[in-house]
Amino acid sequence: MAKSNRRGFLTTAPAAAVAVVAAGATAAGAQEAATGPSKARPKRRKAVKETHWPGREAPAETPLFSPVVTFGNMVYLSGIGAHFEGDVQAHTAHVLDEMKKNLEAVGSSMENVLKVNVYLNDLKDYKAMNEVFRGRFGNAPGVRTTIAAAGGIPGDSLVEIDCIAYV
User: Fold this and answer.
1) Where are the extended beta strands (E) located within the chain?
2) What is the per-residue pLDDT across 1-17, written as a single tens digit (0 to 9) for each?
3) Is 155 in contact with 83 (CB distance < 8 Å)?
4) Which tens digits make up the pLDDT trace of 39-79?
5) Distance CA 105, CA 68 (A)
6) Has residue 39 been placed in a domain?
7) Residue 164 bridge partners (DSSP)
8) Domain that holds residue 138
9) For position 141, which CATH number holds?
10) Smallest Cα–Cα separation from 166: which of 118, 85, 106, 96?
């Protein structure tokens, strides 16, 4: 058996790889020329970032963040809090209702949510928040992360929730 020469292999491998790719591209081009363009892969539309302000006008000044952003068929919702007196269950119900409205405003739904982040003011509210949260995202909910934010939630909300969904 001949002894392997790694250095020789490393110097010839890139040229061999280019030749293989070029041969494949030439074969694909020849096949397309003979049979017409392939319909297996539809052309993709270029995804465009769009900001949405459900239920209100966009602010005149440049905002700190947008409440809803879509990019192609993906939907990104900023954190939604509840800024009124109440317990964590009232805050959670309000936040989830607002989330549902924002998702539906851009053609999505709670069932289309892929990822949820829940930020609690206090981890001892975890069980009470879950009692309201359960079932709001259908029978196959997306993934979720829940944390207690050090220092609390801005605006004195007991819970803040953001998500990523699709249309």
Assistant:
1) 49-52, 68-71, 74-81, 113-120, 143-148, 159-166
2) 556 555 555 556 555 55
3) yes
4) 666 677 788 999 999 888 888 999 899 999 999 999 999 99
5) 10
6) no
7) 76, 115
8) 49-166
9) 3.30.1330.40
10) 106
